[in-house]
Amino acid sequence: MGETTGIAWTDHTWNPWHGCRKISPGCKNCYMYRDKERYGQEPSVVLRSKTTFNDPLKWKSGRVFTCSWSDFFIEEADPWRHEAWEIIRQTPHLTYQILTKRPERMATHFPADWGHGWANVWLGISAENQKYADERLPILMTAKAAKRFVSAEPLLEPIYIQDDLMGMTSCGRPDWVIVGGESGPDARLFDPNWAWDLLRQCRRAETAFFMKQMGSHARSRFPMKHPHGADPMEWPKEFRVQEFPKD
Q: pTM score > 0.90 for this model?
């Protein structure tokens, strides 16, 4: 993690802290838990990074997935978050993609000068099923931000976030939707039709759509060699959509 990453929708990962607590079904097979346990570490303990906290100060450009091994708004990180905001302030040439499962904490933990949102920060929520799409998306859509996005990964059931032809929620539409099936040895079912439904919703709302991966389970349905189903050239052509929000 750090300077380069295998995550298709970003350029860097930055973990000013690591460790997290599972709070919803999407967390069940968390890769961070799996990797930390492999090295004999306790994944539920949140720790400030000793080696990666200042990494963005070295990077010249790119998108930065922030807290890929934690949650930027987790309570345990409250003592350090102001330092992370300061690094983000000092690097306006980077675009920070902050994804959270705790959007209810965002409004009270923005910097004092947040205003309508900093130009280099995108805010996103995870929505693995309809329950959490309904709970988290309205909170996201009331937050001020340069861009707002939804990560439907791992997508565990069909979700619908379009209320009408003009927008995807009553509060407006997100700028971006990322979709992916679950990966790993215990990957749960991912039906590509769920992604197809979301793609159609995004098309109607003029929202950017990014198909990240089909997941490990879908390899039984399509002849894919990639272990996570993450090679677009192995997908049916209609799923090869990897868009970013417009500037």
A: yes
